[in-house]
Amino acid sequence: MIDLARQLWPYLVPAVSLIMSLAAATHVVLYKRDPRSATGWVGVILLFPFAGTILYLLLGVNRIQRRAANMRRAAHTSAGIKRAVIPSPHALQSFLPERARHLAMLDRIVTTITKTPLLSGNACTPFVNGDQAYPAMLGAIARAHSSISLSTYIFGNDDVGMQFVDALAAAAARGVAVRVLVDAVGARYSRPTIRQPLRRAGVPTAFFMPTITPWRAPYFNLRNHRKLLVIDGSAGFTGGMNIRANNLVSRQQPDAVQDLHFLLQGPVVAHLQNTFAKDWFFTTGELLNGPLWFPELNPAGTVIARGISDGPDEDFGHMTKTLLGALACAHRSIRIVTPYFLPDPALISALNIAAMRGVTVDIIIPRVNNLRMVGWAMAAQLWQVLEWDCRVWLSPPPFDHSKLLVIDDEWSLIGSANWDPRSLRLNFEFNVECYCPHLAAALHRVFEAKRARAHRVRLADVDGRPLPVRVRDGFARLFTPYL
Prior knowledge:
The protein is an alpha/beta fold.
């Protein structure tokens, strides 16, 4: 038997490798949506026997979609959303000033994409940096009397993180139902992680999709990048801000991070809560339902808003299609702030066509990126928008992690998504679209304050980079689908 095994071994290993490679390549051909991604994975699998297949199993297979049916059941059981007046696209025109009525078509587009209602009667308060946002969030947690839902990508184990741990523990001690969801990769941005402090404090905590890799992995796939804090089901915070001390810009730390966050009140808060309930069910199997989590919500302002969930599951492509729809509907101006600007060809074309239509397109990105390879790839792509008169501005340090899109000074998109493949294809994100000229005006002022400090980059600047720098940046751009 041993001799037979020795004789067969040289043939058995190639046969197993071939079968594995063919099976993995077949899976790629059947299930990968993007032909470029499919071609790349087939090449990796066939060129690197065993290793390519294992790499695809670890990084290329979307296991989230297999559980989408369970998530739909969770959405059904937690659908206690009390809806306010839902304007139809026709009725929405009566809510908008005459100069903005063309944006009613955008409502039709996003309604078709998301199947989620547009809700009136909301209020939205912006906060600049953690210096404004954290006191408001901690104060809301201290005032909670029934439930707290908190979802974040990074939960730092530092003095700011511990303030949140203490506030959540105090709420749980006084009888508030508390649920905290932290992304398993994002949690590793602190060593040691926040896991033990939360559990020692008695805060019910779960970690989204733990990975088998023990190291910090900023490029790892399928992460929960959403930032949600819902208090008593009636007040919700969302935006781009993690929970971390370096968001306190006033401390002037070397790694300080600028960001934007928002307080939402009114019926749209149910969209935040429903998204959290789905993620919590996905992670723990516990259903969050009933008035404790979904109370009756009364009008709180004049903002018409809708939550938009996006991720590599049943919500795949929601954000990309929303961005494309918004760019197509713009008549006068497009203002973008994003830390990571790696749009796909469709978004690049939409930006360029808007500029060709006479729309003023302004894009603010960081001059120095916190992810070096992403910064190189961004530099290599800028020519594609600069050559068609889109205006790009480089903001000085501290690093600006803000995410913002304002169309025609009437419509705003706020939330967690970046303009890169990781946000738009691989991560779970949550954004809110808002129809309100007053909010747009406030965000315009934020935008202008950032642009006043920024330096405009022109096509000649990009073309004038030294050859070794352009080669480096161009090489980094090859990895854009995975950054």
